[in-house]
Amino acid sequence: MRRFFTGLCARARPAGIVALALAAHASGCSRTGLDVPERTTHAGTTHSVDGGGFSVVDAGTPSSDAAPPSTTTPPVVEVPKTHRCEPVPETCNGRDDDCNGHVDDAIAPVPCSGGGSRYCVAGSLTACPTRCDACVPGSERVCFHAYCTYWAVQECTADGKAFGTCREQLVPTECAGVADKHQESPELEQCCIDSGYCCHDEFDLDHDGDRSEMLGTCDEVTCRP
Amino acid sequence: MPSVSARSSALVVFVAMLAPTNDARAAPCGAADFLSALPPDGATSVPTNATLTAHYAAPASYDGEPVIVTHAPSSGDTPREPPPDFTVSFDGSESLLAVTFEQPLVAVGDYTVTWPRLHGSDHQGEGRGGKTTFRAGSETDTAFPNFGGFSSVAWDVVRIRDDCTDSLEDRFAFDLGLRSASDDGGRDSLELVVYQSTRLGARGDEVLHMPMPAKGDAVRVERALGDADGPVCFSAIVRDLTGKPSGGDAAGVCTTTIEPPFFYGCTTARHPSHDGGRERTVLVVGVAALIAARRRRR
């Protein structure tokens, strides 16, 4: 397991890893790094890594794989004889703010306007929960084919995690002329939207760079209320 | 002239062609079924300040369907007491139905909760309800739970038959090993909430919440291929029966996935012990014998 120094503590950038740890100690940072799991062997389709994680180590004790200090370069940070933790209210930052020996403990969840709460995990607040992962199970959106009718429909899977296959259908009358003339095109997607369907944004008509989203009348399809 | 059985077969095929293709999935898919409850069925020593929750398949809708709670002292001969006063709330973002009592639970009392059948969206039918029983303890839950996080991750690609699309769907399946967890309200009444991110320390999205698995059991998270391709990290918290979360320092795990189809390289040719060598020999001998037989015929 390698440890990389990050965050506020790393910004001090003293020379040498030990000096960095000492600087972190002196600045009150009890979090000295993020555990980054090393790449492991690939065995078929199953990959395993050892338990990495957002862990807390004693700032005064460099990790075992840290390089020893150079004999020619003296430490740039003076070693404090006794470290005093200045207690402040605990906040979600990956540090032991209240000096009780625990990191990010007893932090109340932050309520979300749409329901659910945000929790402190690994030094930052989580996103608000949504009612499903990708789409409402059983709902449909229009997608487009490059052949035949150019019009198709995708149904959301039962677990709401993705849409299924894009299956061809007859073009509704309001867009039949557009499909005949422009085939699979931005014009056809625009007709889909204008006709009140929930449509796969294959042509990025809202110019946000996201071609996996959907546009149009999607209240019954999208996960966000 | 075709036989009778042949005509019957033709008729069956004709009728099958006329039948709508969706008959095989006439039942509503993705119904908002009751999945689990906390405290779990059969729990004992439940803290007297517990809030009861039921988890439904997402996205569920709550429209005031009644939750029935009955209480009786633990000695079974005593008649049931009037139902305790409680309020019901519903969190649509997590499809959680919650019962909060106005007074603490009666110590060492037996409770039965009948969770209602809920509707899903317009596309879904009414799901299944549930029924759980538990026995209250005599203590309150005051401490925050402790949770060590994850210890390992392994992944694979699984293929599932989907009720809604009536087709096979691929999913990344992650098996996450759990470290220790504890709470003054009991480990069995903890709820595990799992978050996914691309690196530890980044904002995570909730991907699963469920009752804490039994000790030694891993937890499985399934994700769509497009949602977990490449670097993937998982972190988690646990919540107790009063809603208090564990600390944010629980260990997370990371891995890197590869979207199928997988390529294993040209390893087959490097294994001389493989039976393919014998098969090739048999094939060559067979072809030679065939050619020799043809020549003899001429």
Mean pLDDT of chain A: 72
Annotation, overall tally of beta strands of chain A: 13
Spans of chain B with pLDDT under 50 lasting ≥5 residues?
Answer: 1-26, 268-277
The sequence of SSEs of chain B as H and E is HEEEEEEEEEEEEEEEEEH
Assembly state of the chains shown? heterodimer
Distance between the termini of chain A: 42 Å
Précis, in short:
Chain A is α+β, with helices and mostly antiparallel strands.
Task: Give your account of this protein's structure.
The complex is a heterodimer of chains A (225) and B (298). Chain A is of the alpha+beta class. Helices cover 15% and strands 17% of the residues of chain A. Chain A has helices spanning 7-11, 17-26, 173-182, 186-194, and strands spanning 2-4, 34-36, 42-43, 46-50, 110-111, 117-118, 120-121, 124-125, 140-144, 151-155, 167-168, 198-200, 214-216. In chain A, strands 9-10-11 form a 3-stranded antiparallel beta sheet, covered by helices on one side. In chain A, strands 1-2 form a two-stranded antiparallel sheet. Chain A has a two-stranded antiparallel sheet with strand order 3-4. In chain A, a hairpin with a 2-residue loop joins strand 3 (42-43) and strand 4 (46-50). Helix content of chain B is 12%, strand content 36%. Chain B contains 2 helices and 17 strands. In chain B, the strands form 5 sheets. In chain B, strands 1-3-6-5 form a 4-stranded antiparallel beta sheet, with no helix packed on it. A 4-stranded mixed beta sheet of chain B has the order 2-8-7-4, with no helix packed on it. A 4-stranded antiparallel beta sheet of chain B has the order 14-13-16-17, with no helix packed on it. Chain B is elongated, with a radius of gyration of 29 Å. At the A-B interface, strand 2, strand 4, strand 7 and strand 8 of A face strand 10, strand 11, strand 13, strand 14 and strand 15 of B. Strand 4 of chain A pairs antiparallel with strand 10 of chain B, so a sheet runs across the interface.
